Amino acid sequence: MNTHTKEGKRSVGKPRNESSKAAIISSTIKLLEHSSFANLTIEGIAKDAGASKATIYRWWKNKEELLLSIYLDVTDLSVKFNPLLSVEENFRQVIIELSRVLDSTLGRALISAIVENEDLLKKFHVHFLNQEDWKQKVFWRWVFMQESFNLKLI
């Protein structure tokens, strides 16, 4: 096989296959419905998906990365700021959504993995909490609320 990367280097193995990726994701979710994250293995996922372990490792570094990737792909965990609501109400909505999402099979598996893996926690944190757009909106909402409050006092 003679495939090349953008840098012109020869890549190793077969190119990534989207249908294999979908089968791996589906199998992982299915297996988590019947087993804990601790009992989930790359071998079991590969067997159920009809893929090789090498295929899984081409996409993901380990089962923790696979889980986080699936979780982020199948859940809508982006922070949505509603400018019509107060900062407090926006925060309440974020917490409710986060609770709902984490109280799922994938969410519980992710919590289990995060407890054991600090790097995974950092990656989850970066995705969920470090959304600059959200932080800027909250900041400007707060500034606007302060200015409105000051104007009422004058």
Radius of gyration: 21 Å
- Overall mean confidence score, pLDDT: 77
Helix content: 55-70%
Query: Hey, roughly how much beta strand do the residues contain?
Result: under 5%
Instruction: Name the structural class.
Output: mainly alpha
What does the overall shape look like?
Answer: elongated
Largest sheet: none
Please provide the ordered H/E string of secondary-structure elements: HHHHHHHH
SS summary, helix count: 8
Q: What is the strand tally? A: 0
Provide structural commentary.
This protein has 154 residues and is mainly alpha-helical. It is 69% helix and 0% strand. The chain is elongated and about 50 Å long. The chain starts with 17 loop residues before the first helix and ends with a helix. Residues 1-5 and 147-154 have low confidence and may be disordered.
